[in-house]
Specification:
Layout lengths: L9 H13 L2 H18 L12 H8 L3 H7 L2 H19 L2 H4 L3 H22 L9 H20 L1 H17 L3 H16 L17 E3 L11 E9 L5 H10 L16 E3 L8 E2 L11 E3 L5 E3 L5 E3 L5 E3 L4 H6 L1 H4 L1 E10 L8 E7 L5 E8 L2 E6 L13 E2 L10 E8 L2 E6 L2 E7 L14 H23 L3 H27 L5 H19 L9
Antiparallel strand pairs: 1-8, 1-10, 2-3, 2-7, 2-9, 4-5, 5-8, 6-7, 9-14, 10-11, 11-12, 12-13, 14-15, 15-16
Length: about 525
């Protein structure tokens, strides 16, 4: 441990960096990144050939047209394709054979070579279960160009700063602590994805109510014709069939395991009790708070004339304990007619909650729009981070059929048989802006410091550059595997094998990059 903090001057680090230009290290880095690039773009390597295939005809069929791809490709894929080839263009531009040429010549060579490699990769994907496209060639070429520009015009300045950073880290006694803190931060960052999108944090002690919040301060006025709660997801065809069937004379679904867990058809016509007609025991009957503030509608329905509520006598444990929490699936179906289109708050059409801050789920009206809030470990106790809501004012005067479905992480809201809002929720969506440019880009940025710092630590303990790189690769792989195992254990998410492979490649590249700044590379 006595050699753990051997100082290295900035001058020595800069001299080592100077040797990088004329050494084989750039070629090794470029070769390694090229292999990484091929692995990333040609997985799963399930090539299929047929002697009867005509190559040109197959290419014209399989390649996606540029216009269609540009219109339909998500922004994260566009940015990801650009970033994928930027390091390739950078490393190619700082090869000794390129640096001896003029900057414009260097740019032309790199752009042409990046375009050629991208074309070869895309044509190889013809024989894979992937979707090759001209747009990818165009975007990859842009990435190679940006990397070449950085290498041609920014390398000399950038390497000075890089050398200074490496030298400071190498002689710092805190580098080991910096590595440990970064690993802990990485686990903390990815723990947001461990915050599940299931119903494990539901509270079965809450009552269920129609037309108001349990606290009585979010009244909704209008007519209720039909309310059903399911512990499964209604398909789009089922939603359309229910819409065309209307709210009246709905066929009985008793005994159907895919039927509602709670169902209210409001056929009582009198009294202060609304019966649960789902057939699932125990029944969750509801009581009308103030009979004078409601009006029964024939042949079925009830109208809320003033602020009141129709609520369960006690906790609605049936909704939490019976099926929904175990499946983490939910469908809410209602036929309603708002009294007016100015109710806000949102005004509670139905709510399984304790008050305005604590809920399991809520369906409400906010003017001409619908809002649905659902508690999960990710969205919080109030279910608002995020919440599903329409923005196109689907409510008009008259009767509406509203259905909200939820399967772990995926919301869909239908109004009158048509989809009006979709929301996908994943804890990784809340990580950082890095993730918005794609999984590859995010993990490349997040994992690069692991190998870089690990090499600095192990280079102090062993004399061999190769051994230090191997140790850095092993410790980096252990960190990455730990992140995946934690997600697998807590969220039941399958281990992402492609991520392990690509992440290991990033860690190796970062350790190799760190080794180029090491004075010891001169003798290996």
């Amino acid at each position: 441990m006595a050699n753990l903090f051997v100082p290295v001057s900035f001058y020595q680090a800069e001299q080592a960096c100077e040797r990088l230009i004329g050494s084989r290290r750039v070629l090794i880095l470029l070769s390694t990144y090229s292999i990484y690039l091929l692995v990333l773009t040609l997985m799963p390597f399930t090539f299929s050939f047929d002697s009867s295939w005509k190559f040109l005809d197959l290419a014209s069929i399989r390649f996606e047209p540029l216009a269609a791809v540009v219109c339909c490709t998500p922004i994260e894929e566009i940015v990801g394709n650009v970033l994928l080839f930027a390091p390739f263009g950078f490393l190619l531009s700082i090869l000794p054979a390129c640096r001896c040429r003029s900057q414009w010549s260097r740019l032309i060579i790199v752009v042409c070579f990046a375009c050629l490699v991208s074309v070869l990769i895309e044509y190889s994907q013809i024989f894979l279960p992937r979707a090759p496209s001209i747009a990818d060639v165009f975007l990859n070429s842009i990435g190679g160009t940006l990397g070449a520009v950085a290498g041609s015009y920014g390398y000399d300045v950038g390497r000075r700063y890089a050398c200074r950073v490496w030298a400071n880290l190498q002689k710092s006694p805190m580098v080991l602590w910096l590595f440990l803190v970064y690993v802990m931060a990485l686990f903390d960052l990815t723990s947001l994805s461990i915050l599940g999108t299931d119903f494990r944090n539901w509270d079965p002690s809450y009552p269920f109510q129609l037309g108001n919040e349990a606290s009585g301060d979010r009244p909704w006025l209008g007519k209720l014709y039909f309310v059903a709660l399911y512990d499964n997801v209604l398909t789009a065809k089922e939603v359309q069939r229910h819409f065309h069937s209307g709210p009246f004379q709905r066929p009985s679904q008793k005994g159907n395991r895919n039927g509602p867990v709670a169902l209210y058809s409001f056929t009582e016509g009198r009294g202060t009790t609304v019966q649960d007609r789902s057939g699932f025991e125990p029944p969750l009957d509801l009581s009308i708070g103030d009979r004078e503030k409601i009006s029964w509608i024939a042949p079925q329905g009830v109208e809320l004339l003033a602020s009141t509520s129709i609520t369960s006598a006690g906790p609605a444990q049936k909704l939490c304990l019976r099926h929904m929490c175990s499946r983490s699936q939910l469908s809410v179906e209602v036929w309603v007619e708002p009294e007016n289109l100015e109710q806000a708050g949102p005004a509670r059409i139905l709510s399984y909650s304790a008050n305005t801050l604590l809920r399991n789920f809520t369906l409400g009206q906010d003017g001409k729009n619908i809002i649905f809030r659902l508690r999960t470990p990710l969205s919080g106790l109030n279910g608002i981070h995020p919440a599903l809501q329409t923005t196109d004012d689907p409510l008009i005067e008259g009767r509406h059929h509203i259905v909200v479905t939820y399967r772990v992480g995926y919301f869909t809201l239908f109004v009158d048989g048509r989809k009006h809002a979709i929301l996908t929720v994943d804890g990784r969506d809340h990580l950082t802006l890095f993730y918005s440019v794609g999984k590859w880009a995010f993990w490349s940025v997040a994992l690069f410091p692991i190998g870089f710092l690990a090499y600095i630590i192990f280079s102090r303990l062993v004399r061999s550059v190769v051994t230090a790189i191997i140790f850095s690769l092993v410790i980096g792989f252990v960190v990455l595997l730990g992140v995946e195992l934690v997600s697998w254990a807590f969220v039941n998410r399958e281990i992402d094998v492609p991520l392990l492979l690509s992440g290991t490649g990033v860690i190796f590249l970062s350790a190799l990059t760190s080794s180029t700044f090491d004075k010891a590379t001169a003798v290996h």
